[in-house]
Amino acid sequence: MKSNIKIGVYVLSKYAKQTYVKECYDVRINAGMAVVVDILKHNGYTNIEYASSANAHRFDVILYSVTSDCDWWNFVAERTVWQKGECKVIVGGQGVLNVRPFLDVADYFVLGRAENVIHKAIAAAINSEECEDVHVISSKTFDVDRTYHINQVNATYPYDIELENGKIYHEDTIGCNHRCLFCGYTWQRQQAKQEAFEYSGLWNGGADRERAMLDMHNGIEVDLTKLRTTAIDGLSERIRFGVNKKITREILRSFLDNLARCEKPHQVKFYNIIGYPTETTNDWFEFLEDIKTVDKELAKQDKQTSILLHSTPFRAMPATPLACKPMQYKNFRGQIAKVLGQGKYKGNIFYQGNAMWAVESMATESLATVVQSAIVWRGIENDADNLRRIAMSNKFKSASAKVKQATLEKYFDVNKLFGSFTAETLPTRYLKTYCEVEKMWK
Prior knowledge:
It is a single chain. By secondary structure, the protein is an alpha/beta fold. It folds into 2 domains: 2-149, Cobalamin-binding domain (Rossmann fold); 175-365, no CATH class. It has helices spanning 18-23, 31-42, 71-80, 118-126, 184-187, 201-204, 212-217, 237-242, 249-260, 281-295, 335-341, 367-378, 384-392, 394-397, 401-411, 414-417, and strands at residues 7-10, 48-51, 61-65, 88-92, 108-110, 136-138, 148-149, 161-162, 168-169, 229-231, 267-274, 305-313, 349-352, 356-360, 431-432. The strands form 4 sheets. Strands 2-1-3-4-5-6 form a 6-stranded mixed β-sheet, with helices on one face. A 5-stranded mixed β-sheet has the order 10-11-12-14-13. Strand 3, helix 3 and strand 4 (88-92) form a beta-alpha-beta unit. It starts with 6 loop residues before the first strand and ends in a 10-residue tail after the last strand. Residues 23-29 and 199-206 have low confidence and may be disordered. This is Radical SAM protein.
């Protein structure tokens, strides 16, 4: 009887990011797991509870959702010290792409969407069998030369889901039509609706417009007085066009001008990606030049528009057109303000003018953090033991970014992790998505 099968939804005791402690199972971070539980209930599995490292051994099956690459490290640490038991572990979520360093911490990996798949993985786990579905990887039989597919659906999940905080979650979009070459959201999720991607209003109140610049250029209204975040994803036109982010310098300048002239000047966070393979500081200076060009035509204002540039180091994500590209082995934290500010300003400010000032976010990840991401996305079976040691080391967790970097360089081949790959050597070459991204790997 399905109702007799005890399924535990695993909750980490410690999270890699402090915000996850509050957000997991409360708002957006694990709304996906709430959908998985609902799918299982519709398939007759009703004995589902939360689980932790203290009681995981009491369940028949443990489910864990990897929402980001950083989730793996604490899960590996906790999974290693579970009490012995007969439970099977099924891992899924958007952070499950490269399974090779994690074959010894999970029995099954669900790739992509859970619909029409998760119940098959549960059945295989209960019977200790290989799951024959191409969207599920069984650890014992994994073969890098086989082909596994990221599961897709053609419609959003039809049911309302009540989250732990009482809010109702209803999936409103899947995938994205922007086709930015670096982005897993586009290439790992086939779009189920035709409108452009926007973040769900469940957690941001509609104040974020990732596509604001292009929307305005195309005549779509954007309330700039309410806008709080948008995306640029490249500091020069050359870089942006190279990753299919079609924001010209003219579009950027027009947006900056409108933003500076809006009724209520305020801070807007510009999400950016830094460290693309061919990027140089010349690309950075182009962004500064565009700000200066706009600002010099504006009148002096006491209350100014603030540009908070938040940069994320480039990761070559699996199952994307840029999966084989090299990553720059460089610590970018604080570098934009240092380079563009040229010693003229204090702290992380890199421009201050008539109506605008620009500042670099200090939340750019350290190089050590990017190395850990590279291990998750490009690591192989031989990295599993060292990954486990690092994950379980309290000394490593409390170390400085510099010490972490040196430790990772000692135990992992960072030159290989950050280097170029081919279709034949890419660690995740077994992974297929809804379109043939491998055609763009040359």
